[in-house]
Amino acid sequence: MLKKVLVANRGEIAVRIIRACREVGIPTVAVYSDVDHSSLHVQLANEAYSLGPPPPLESYLNIDKIIDIAKMSGADAIHPGYGFLAENYHFTKRCEDEGLIFVGATSEAIRLLGNKLESRETMIRAGIPVIPGMETAVRDTAALVQQASRIGYPVLIKAASGGGGKGMRAVSSQAELERALEGARRESKSAFGDDTVYVEKFIERPRHVEFQILADHSGNTVHLFERECSIQRRHQKIVEETPCTALDDQLRRKMGEVAIEVARVAHYTNAGTVEFLLDQDGDFYFLEVNTRVQVEHPITEMTTGIDIVKLQLALASGDPIPVKQQDIVPRGHSIEARIYAEDAENDFMPSFGTILFLQEPAGPGIRNDTGIYAGCDVTMHYDPILAKLIVWDENREMARSRMLTALRDYTILGIKTTIAFLRDVIAHPEFAAGNTHTDFIPEHFAQWREAGDEPANLDVALLSAAIYRHLNPPRAAGRAAASGPAFPNPWNATGEWEIGQGKGAD
Amino acid sequence: MELNLTFNNEEYRLGVERAEDGYEVTVGDRIYQVSVRPISSNTFSLVIHGANRLIHIASAGRATYVAVDGRQFCFQEATPGGRKHGTRDLPIDRRELTAIAPMPGRVVKLNVTEGDRVERGHTLAVVEAMKMENEVRAPIDGYVDRVLVREDDMVNVGQVMIELKSGED
């Protein structure tokens, strides 16, 4: 077993990993940038050390500092979470060289699979189906333009070191290509420290279907079935579910076998995700391998009963996979909705501020993976994910209904979030029918506005605000906000006005 | 007590009076008899004309946030003196001559300098936050009159970044 794990991340995933470590009795070390000094992951870890200023390159991407803290604190392993250094093979190599266990794949596997072009060539040689596109990356814009013309528009620009949609641009004509290239390169440089991009054929209205894989150091590889992640905004997933409504047993078995083959070809170890695009004819193409724990891993945990993060820790310390493929039998249906600090009415612009009030849903089959608390600040420095709401139930329709109810009971006040938007997505008849594809959001929710299911809600909200303001004038509220998380209690202060309690509640 | 709250650019006039059974609240010309059952400092149950509604509420400065049945509203209290800087303060005919920050963030790229000729849709600057880039485009054909930000500057949403002037000049 690992002795002490440094979690080189922040937010909900750092919290998730720290909780898993606590449950198996491994002490944890948190790291944080200045703006995260009182974050949930810092509160939960056994030890916490500052990384300094907030910009990612100086904090959560600062390899030297993180390695120094690992050594100084006596950690023998580093869990990178997702994002930041999770798929940076230089970091993994550094861990290997310094004698630290990296909870994830080897640097060689991450290097190969992180290089989209090299992994593509490797997969083509192994007979894995891939999307038509460039065979080599070129820095020269003229050559990229030429390649795009050869493949035929529409094309997709992708960052060679990328993931999560960063640096990705769909381009429908040559006129748009040059500006899109410039933006994609800059975004890629900022997110991954590498501005190499390539182009491939853009497949219209595909489904995004991925398989969770697990591999140990003795060459045993299993898959934990699929997740469908077609509901995306800006090429980033916001709703995921398992099982996928478009797979029958035969296709599911075939894709699972290909996923395992991909892992074998790459000499993969630990947890990973093999992503495919599934087109409307039922043909599927290898997209990439995410060499890390995936944001949406909980839905697989809900249906298979396997704790992926705990297994990551066990596999990293050299344990074999404890289950055989035929013993992994998923049950029921699970859906995840990602709660982002974004304004869904305004092109999903990030929203910042202090969370003034938080109430999370609870109940059977409801799981909430969160990195926030009432009183915490959401800053502009990092990915705006706040929490993930995950539900499970016997079948898809029941899970969908549970998700709608849970989202309705989820309240975050003080910043804009995607909660109301997610409710409308999950309530949409096309989602209910299982007709999902990666253009679902632009197609059905282009100019989305929060409807407010009843016009009377606005009046109720207005009169509530009026009463609250009456009891809690702005000056007092301003002082309270400035003095931190201790909220004033107007109900205590006013004493005798508690009239009519219970009246009319029948 | 009377107050004006703004929501989605609409202003609502509200009045709150103590009544024998709680409050009488007027919203525009509608009158509600409301009793309040407190639950915690940010949560209460309202009984309005016999129906029970669970409310979560919080405020910061002049903003009040209210959640009703999972829908969230953010109201701004009308300010007696002065408004925040931004395009809303500008006379209508000036608004279309400015390029404003689409979100709070850092200016990562500035493509123009004063006097440059620009076409509508031309990318004037790029603002980045949370690793997401947003292009600030020219709203009109014209010339760059004033550049009010520099690369690496932090900007707020709605902040005027670049002023343009139209046509011939």
From TrEMBL, chain A:
Keywords: ATP-binding, Biotin, Ligase, Nucleotide-binding, Pyruvate
Pfam families according to UniProt: Biotin_carb_C (PF02785), Biotin_carb_N (PF00289), CPSase_L_D2 (PF02786)
Domain Biotin carboxylation: from-to ranges: 1-446
Keyword Nucleotide-binding: yes
EC number, UniProt record: 6.4.1.1
ATP-grasp domain location: 120-317
InterPro entries: ATP-grasp, BC-like_N, Biotin_carboxylase_complex, Biotin_carboxylation_dom, Biotin_COase_C, CPAse_ATP-bd, PreATP-grasp_dom_sf, Rudment_hybrid_motif
UniProt key word Hydrolase: no
Coiled coil: none
Region span, Disordered: 479-506
Enzyme class: ligase
GO MF term set: ATP binding; metal ion binding; pyruvate carboxylase activity
Highest taxon of source: Bacteria
Name this polypeptide is given: Pyruvate carboxylase subunit A
Organism of derivation: candidate division TA06 bacterium DG_24
Phylogenetic placement of the source organism: Bacteria, Bacteria division TA06
Automatic annotation (TrEMBL), chain B:
Protein name per the record: Lipoyl-binding domain-containing protein
SUPFAM superfamilies: Single hybrid motif
CDD domains assigned to the protein according to its UniProt record, in alphabetical order: biotinyl_domain
Organism: candidate division TA06 bacterium DG_24
One Pfam family it belongs to: Biotin_lipoyl
InterPro entries: Biotin_Carboxyl_Carrier/Decarb, Biotin_lipoyl, Single_hybrid_motif
PANTHER family associated with the record: OXALOACETATE DECARBOXYLASE ALPHA CHAIN
Domain Lipoyl-binding: 85-165
Alphabetical keyword list: Biotin
Parts of the chain that traverse the membrane: none
